[in-house]
Amino acid sequence: MADVRLTQIKKAFGKVEVLHGITLDIPSGEFISLLGASGCGKTTLLRIVAGLEGVTSGTVELAGRDVTALPPEKRDIAMMFQSYALLPHLSVSENVRFPLRMRRIGSREEQAEKVRDALETVQLGHLADRKPTQLSGGQQQRVALARAIVSRPSVLLLDEPLSNLDARLREDMQVELIEIHKRLGLTTIFVTHDQEEALSLSDRIVLLNGGNVEQQGAPSEIYTNPASGYVSNFLGAANLLPAVISETGDTLSARLEDGQSLPLSSDESRRGAATLALRQEDVILCPEGEGQIVGEIGTRIYLGARNRYVVHVAGTEIRVLAGTETVFEDGSRVGLTVDPARIRALPQS
Ligand SMILES: Nc1ncnc2c1ncn2[C@@H]1O[C@H](COP(=O)(O)OP(=O)(O)OP(=O)(O)O)[C@@H](O)[C@H]1O
């Protein structure tokens, strides 16, 4: 059964409609990410699930119960925000206990035990008596997470919870989130505008665009099968090249704007004007004349274990991730090869 069911959710602020009829079923225990550019409506949708924002029309059901008209405290959910808002005058354990006190959940002893459990889960048991100001940013974030999970809500809502952390801490917290999710099995809705974070954490990604669902699916599915140029572009993974697809005898090829052609897999069903999506790691650079097409190196960006090249090809620029064994100099002509099975043909954008 779906743990969270959103049906035709519309939301307007004044005369401006920002959600245009979102329908989503989230099964129990799933980790789902709402991904999308700033202003696409992610936070508004999350606040609607939490009950912090009303809907203009549509329904919110939690565990089969219509909660559309219920206030947040009557919904079995917890939310963790980007600004984790710990109470500075309370100790770590008192902060974590706070929602239990507010909702009058359990006796004092039961509350103390739940707090200990939650702090152990985020590995902060040893800091229970500290004040938030005596903690690092990452530790404060973990206290906020403990506070969100202490009442064992059936649904956990996370609004960009890692965006205030530096890159290293962020990675640690991502791993921790995955582990906690596995251990507790909470249905989790995670809002982010960071595609890598969404790809690495989620069972399913829902990509929003301007208040509509643009595409949803497992991370690998969305990554390898973007339904539109927008998705492909948003995932930051693919280069988009205009092309015309045609068949000559048994061979299928895509003619680029400068007349060069790339072979396509015979499985490709699209014909005519299209947009090719080539992922940066799928384009192989080689000496000019050895590739399927030619281009010219614009810039090389050194990334440590890899190089990223900007390559001018067919009147546009594409990005290519390559190893460091061979270095191609700026301005040199190169060949480019792509396995036809790795090329996606999207509608013309
Ligand atoms: N209380 C409000 N009153 C009026 N407009 C609002 C209100 N809250 C949000 N909006 C508008 O609704 C749209 C969606 O906002 P929302 O915060 O949901 O986007 P978001 O995808 O979470 O963006 P971000 O990643 O920047 O937080 C935006 O255009 C925003 O300006």
How would you portray this structure in words?
With 349 residues, the chain is an alpha+beta fold. The chain folds into two domains: 2-224, Rossmann fold, CATH 3.40.50.300; 237-347, OB fold (Dihydrolipoamide Acetyltransferase, E2P). 24% of the residues lie in helices and 38% in strands. It contains eight helices and 20 strands. Strands 6-7-8-3-9-10 form a six-stranded mixed beta sheet, with helices on both faces. Helix 2 packs across helix 3. The longest helix is centred in the middle third of the chain and has 18 residues, at 167-184. The mean pLDDT is 90. Bound molecules: adenosine-5'-triphosphate (ATP). Adenosine-5'-triphosphate is lined by residues 13, 18, 36, 38-44, 193.
Summarize the SSE layout with pairings:
Blueprint lengths: L1 E12 L2 E12 L3 E5 L6 H9 L6 E6 L2 E2 L10 E4 L11 H11 L5 H14 L15 H13 L5 E5 L7 H18 L2 E6 L2 H7 L2 E6 L2 E6 L1 H6 L4 H6 L3 E11 L2 E6 L4 E4 L7 E8 L3 E5 L5 E10 L4 E7 L2 E7 L10 E6 L5 E4 L2
Bound molecules: adenosine-5'-triphosphate.
* Secondary-structure element series: EEEHEEEHHHEHEHEEHHEEEEEEEEEE
- Estimated radius of gyration: 24 Å
Poorly predicted segments: none
Tally of distinct domains? 2
**Ligand list:** adenosine-5'-triphosphate
The total count of helices amounts to 8
Structural class: alpha+beta
Largest sheet: 6 strands, mixed
CATH level-two architecture of the largest domain: 3-Layer(aba) Sandwich
Mean pLDDT across residues = 90
Distance between the termini: 38 Å
CATH class of the largest domain: Alpha Beta
